[in-house]
Amino acid sequence: MYEQTTIAAIATPPGEGGIGIIRLSGIDAAEIANRMFETKKLHDFHDAVPYMMYYGKVMDNDRIVDRGLAVYMKAPHSYTGEDVVEFQMHGSVEALRSVLSLALRHGAVPADKGEFTKRAFLNGRIDLAQAESVMDIITARGQAALVQAESHLSGALSQYVHETREKLKEFITKLEVTIDYPEEDLEDLTVDEISKALEEINQSLTELITRSHRGRFIQDGFKTVLAGRPNAGKSSLLNALLQEDRAIVTDMPGTTRDTIEESIRIGGIPLILMDTAGIRDAENQVEAIGIERARKSMEEADLILMVIDGSVPLTEEDRRILSSLEGKKAIVILNKYDLEQKAGEEEIRSLISEETPIIHLSAQYGSGIDRLEELIQKLMHTEDLDAGRQLFLTNLRHMDLAEKSLELIHQAQKSCADKLPADFIVVDLTEAFHKLGEITGENVDDELINSIFQNFCVGK
User: Fold this and answer.
1) Could you read off the pLDDT tens digit of each residue along the chain, which spans 460 residues?
2) Which of 459, 405, 446, 458 has its CA nearest to residue 128?
3) Of 243, 217, 249, whose CA–CA distance to 230 is shortest?
4) Long-range contacts of 343-350 (CB under 8 A, 24+ apart)
5) Angle at CA 152, nearest 5°, toward 441 and 3?
6) From CA 404, how far away is CA 409, in angstroms rounded?
7) Which run of H or of E encompasses 330?
8) Beta strands 269-275 and 109-110: pairing type?
9) How far apart, in Å, are the Cα atoms of 86 and each of 4, 50, 51, 78?
């Protein structure tokens, strides 16, 4: 199929822009370009200098459709591994559709979702882990997510998988020797060596999975909880950070009964802002459920924004919440700074660690929000960058396969400890070997491949 068809699609997002790209890939890409693109510098795209931009015009018979640039990338040295031609035209919807329509009339077929990257995988230009990282780059929500996705595309994850599988292959081979040649009396020594080596793989996979669980914020964002008593101004602060009226704000305490979640980026750092129910002695069952969810959210939070009504003295509930911040990353916010301040900052400091910053602001009027955003960046920037420098699994499919592989390693270790025959160990190690291979696409079926690339956008 891939040797006989040439696909085409618009490769830039819909809407108006300075430049839009139409991409062709396949055996007839250069011939289709010859039929629709005229340039004084070139008579035949087969003779084009690869990667050189040619200025010209897209023609529909005698009518000029648009003017722009064209570039030819010759197989196998292209993204897909096939002949590729890209047209860079004006970025209007109508211009791009007209150019695409012309390409289809000249013999191209519409590309499916992710079909360019799928062809790159099938033609051996990239493995499956690298292919999936392309979508991670497109959807990256922060600097760490982008750095991690770029790392996976460059092959860091693939190299880790390859090296681990090579170790497993070596152990499997040694064990199979003891099975095939039992008279050589090698089993005890070999099993002992492999038992020790399996512990190294166990530690390596365990560290990777643990790191990946902790680093969930790379894809999802830091879970940032707005906590405090009712009517302290949590919902007003949420609206101020989002710069929109997302949460209901009234003078009536207990307006927020359930958790409200919104995603935001502050200085490139992704956050999931969670406005929770005000913590107090509940007056009814509905409020009690909301308060319990608020407490649970605080326990799971990466960052707590503890909001205190600075216009009234500290209450016992304020003190209890402040004391619960011990060991957590938090910022204490004295809100309603536009009013006379009655909350004692010295008492607050006595209830929290020296590292926890205290800031004054007025969520209602937006004063002090810039300072709060600076503090958030300062607190979370190091974690964000550190996460980007380490190898993480950000893809749920990869995580599931790594966890299953680790479980099989554990089973093999138990078999070693129980001194079971080598056959039992080989079965588990071989299955772990295949599970890891599914990450890079060495052991996957067509149905899985198709489902993965259906999550891509058309044109990628």
Assistant:
1) 456 899 999 999 888 888 999 999 999 999 999 999 999 989 899 999 999 999 999 999 999 999 999 999 999 999 999 999 999 999 999 999 999 999 999 999 999 999 999 999 999 999 999 999 888 888 777 777 777 888 888 889 999 999 999 999 988 887 777 666 555 554 455 667 777 888 999 999 999 998 887 666 666 778 888 888 888 888 888 888 888 765 444 444 444 444 678 888 887 778 888 887 655 444 545 445 556 666 777 777 888 899 999 888 988 888 888 888 888 889 999 999 988 888 888 888 988 888 899 999 998 888 899 999 999 888 886 555 555 567 888 888 999 999 999 999 999 999 888 878 878 888 999 999 999 999 999 878 888 888 888 888 888 8
2) 446
3) 249
4) 343/308, 343/309, 343/310, 343/311, 343/312, 343/313, 343/314, 343/318, 344/313, 344/314, 347/314, 348/308, 348/314, 348/322
5) 45
6) 9
7) strand 330-335
8) unpaired
9) 19, 11, 10, 11
Asked if 219 and 394 touch (Cβ cutoff 8 Å), the reply is yes
Which residues have CB under 8 Å from 80's CB, separation 6+? 25, 116, 117, 119, 120, 123, 125
Q: Are 348 and 314 in contact (CB under 8 A)?
A: yes
The residue ranges of DSSP E strands in 75-143, in sequence order, are 84-91, 109-110
CB atoms within 10 A of CB 203: 10
Comparing CA positions, the residue from 291, 354, 348, 288 lying closest to residue 320 is 348
Distances (CA, A) of 143 to 66, 198, 242, 379, 380: 37, 35, 20, 15, 12
Contact 190, 175 (CB under 8 A): yes
Question: Which of 50, 45, 109, 112 is CA-nearest to residue 75?
Answer: 50
Closest residue by Cα to residue 430 from 180, 165, 203? 165
Lookup: tokens for 268: 């490139």
Distance CA 256, CA 275 (A): 8
- Going by their DSSP bridges, the two strands 269-275 and 222-227 should be labelled as parallel
CA atoms of 84 and 116, how far apart (whole Å): 10
What's the CA gap between 111 and 93, in Å, rounded? 18
Q: How far apart are CA 171 and CA 195, in angstroms?
A: 10
Query: What count of residues does the chain have?
Result: 460
Instruction: Quote the longest CA-to-CA distance of the chain.
Output: 90
- CB within 8 A of 47, min separation 6: which ones? none
Which 3-state string (H, E, C) describes 202-255?
HHHHHHHHHHHHHCCHHHHCEEEEEECCCCCCHHHHHHHHHCCCCCCCCCCCCC
Tell me if residue 325 falls in helix, strand or coil: coil
